[in-house]
Write a structure and sequence with these properties.
The chain is α+β, with helices and mostly antiparallel strands and about 160 residues long. It has two domains: about 5-90, SH3 type barrels (Roll); about 95-160. The chain has five helices and nine strands, in the order ααβββββααββββα. A five-stranded antiparallel beta sheet has the order 4-3-2-1-5. Strands 6-7-8-9 form a four-stranded antiparallel beta sheet, with helices on one face. This is Gem-associated protein 6. It comes from Neodiprion lecontei (Redheaded pine sawfly).
Length: about 160
């Protein structure tokens, strides 16, 4: 590329993707051109617009903020250690009280039986005809099967269960 072509090329070709990726899962503070400050863990970065998506784990609920790239004035990395952002969003079954898990298990089993699925229990795992299993906390993310059609059908069905 000539100097003239480089000067007029889009900034996405000038960005260093390794540097952008190094910010993911790091705690940062971002100051915008209008004087506002945002802090949180970098969830992802759009390399074209240089927009940052920050997860704020300090709230009871997850709070995501999108800071547009054109508005960013300054960014400071607070910690060099990585925080796995997905762990902030996923709730583990250890965090769910046993009574709620058991109520959900019973509700899922009853719903499946109402819809004429042959449900059996193997310890704390619900099995359907030996081709699908549902593990605690018995939601659609904890279904596993090699048959994609059955898997999608059961996931759609148990997604309606509210305990």
């Amino acid at each position: 590329m000539t100097d003239n072509e480089w000067k007029f090329s889009h900034k996405v070709y000038k960005n260093d993707p390794i540097t952008l990726k190094s910010y993911v899962n790091k705690t940062v503070s971002i100051k915008t051109k209008d004087g506002r400050s945002y802090s949180g863990v970098v969830y992802t970065i759009d390399p074209v617009s240089e927009s940052f998506i920050l997860a704020n784990p300090s709230c009871d609920k997850q709070n995501l903020k999108i800071i547009m790239g054109h508005a960013i004035d300054n960014m400071e990395v607070h910690t060099r250690t990585e925080t796995n952002v997905l762990d902030l969003f996923l709730s583990s079954s250890e965090d769910t009280p046993e009574s709620i898990i058991m109520r959900r298990k019973n509700a899922v089993r009853e719903l499946l039986l109402e819809n004429r699925f042959p449900v059996t229990e193997n310890g704390n795992i619900l099995n359907i005809a030996g081709i699908l299993s549902i593990e605690p906390p018995y939601d659609e993310q904890h279904c596993s099967s090699t048959n994609e059609i059955v898997l999608v059908r059961i996931q759609e069905l148990i997604s309606s269960v509210v305990v």
